[in-house]
Design goal:
By secondary structure, this protein is α/β, with parallel strands linked by helices. The chain is built from 14 helices and ten strands. About 45% of the residues lie in helices and about 15% in strands. Bound molecules: pyridoxal-5'-phosphate.
């Protein structure tokens, strides 16, 4: 057992984030924070982008998965790990397991598109295909856990995962101690909870905005309702932000409730604007989930002032080529087309 394990009987602390930073450092390098002259000029504040697209798997999920897997005992490592995510979390688990020589089983359903299966297979994990929904894949994953002793690596509602994502907050403070606002893509809330824990514990006045697609507002609606909800979701360009928060959510719901100061819902059009802006002005290809913050800022969802130092989390780059072609051809916003701030 690692020395800070007792702290994990409950919520992760900022000290756990420091432990995570040290633990993941051999496998996960800090990501760059760069000034965005174009977004800054467009919105009238100092805007910086945190590029989580530089990781070997193309998304921040590597931080949490690495921290979780490195905290397992030797016996747990030998038995192996499992997960049912087919997105960035699944890729991260497969990657870390391969780096450490740990067996990994990703449970998928027959409905998962072949393109995703191919990517996961290339990552070196074993795939178990069963059932016809994400729920059936998850069920299979739980069977592997209970009957074969594999450790289920949760995508967000886990203290080690949250602390791992939180390492991003320490890097931001190191690079830009004067930060006063941050925009964070929000789905299950591991990303927001981790970053907020690291930022707010050090600098309580930093204003935290969670950004979700209008098509998938589960966490934001749950916060409004004061309890975890289950909602129907629609298709969205920000596909990495799909998926519920779990009716039995233990950690991310209360942490988001405690730390989030405001939220924004962005339309598909606004996500497209974010994607297209990142491509045309930064020459960067990112995924829909990573563009929600830029979209929200450009479209006036977060009022900013001249002296604000705003960080936007660019969370990943797993974009489908068809979607890429769509936004590469769409026109970008000009200032007179922008919606006025409320
Ligand atoms: C998972 C993911 C998110 C959201 O993170 P949560 O911890 O689920 O809130 C945002 N962007 C990308 C690219 C992701 O893969």
């Amino acid at each position: 057992m690692s020395q800070e394990a007792s702290a994990y009987t409950n919520f992760p602390s900022v000290q756990d984030v420091w432990f995570a930073k040290k633990r993941i450092s051999p496998l996960v390098k800090p990501s760059p924070l760069i000034y965005s002259p174009v977004v800054s000029a467009q919105v009238g504040a100092e805007v910086y982008i945190k590029l989580e697209t530089v990781h070997p798997t193309g998304a921040f999920k590597l931080r949490g998965a690495t921290n979780k897997i490195l905290s397992l005992s030797q016996i747990e490592r030998e038995k192996g790990v499992t997960t049912y995510s087919t997105g960035n979390h699944g890729l991260a688990v497969a990657y870390v397991a391969r780096q450490l020589g740990i067996p990994a089983v990703i449970c998928v359903s027959h409905n998962v598109p072949q393109a995703k299966i191919d990517v996961l297979e290339r990552s070196g994990a074993t795939l178990e295909v069963s059932g016809h929904s994400q729920d059936e894949a998850a069920e299979n994953c739980h069977i592997l856990q209970s009957e074969h002793g594999l450790t289920l690596i949760e995508p967000f509602d886990d203290p080690h995962v949250i602390a791992g994502q939180g390492t991003m907050g320490l890097e931001i403070l190191n690079d830009l101690p004067s930060i006063n606002k941050v925009l964070i893509p929000l789905s299950g809330g591991g990303l927001l909870a981790g970053i907020a824990l690291a930022l707010k514990t050090n600098v309580p006045h930093i204003h935290i905005t969670g950004v979700s697609p209008t098509a998938s507002p589960v966490m934001i609606r749950s916060i409004e309702a004061g309890r975890p909800l289950q909602l129907e979701e629609k298709e969205t360009l920000a596909d990495s932000l799909l998926g519920g928060i779990g009716l039995t959510n233990r950690l991310t719901f209360p942490l988001v409730q405690r730390f989030m100061d405001g939220s924004a819902l962005v339309s598909e059009e606004e996500i497209l604007q974010g994607l297209s802006y990142m491509f045309k002005h930064h020459k960067m290809v990112v995924e829909g989930a990573a563009a929600v913050g830029i979209g929200a800022l450009l479209c006036g969802h977060l009022p900013v002032e001249k002296n604000d130092k705003v960080v936007v989390i660019i969370s990943g780059n797993q974009v489908d080529s068809e979607v890429f072609l769509r936004f590469a051809q769409s026109p970008t916003l000009t200032s007179h087309e922008r919606k006025k701030s409320p």
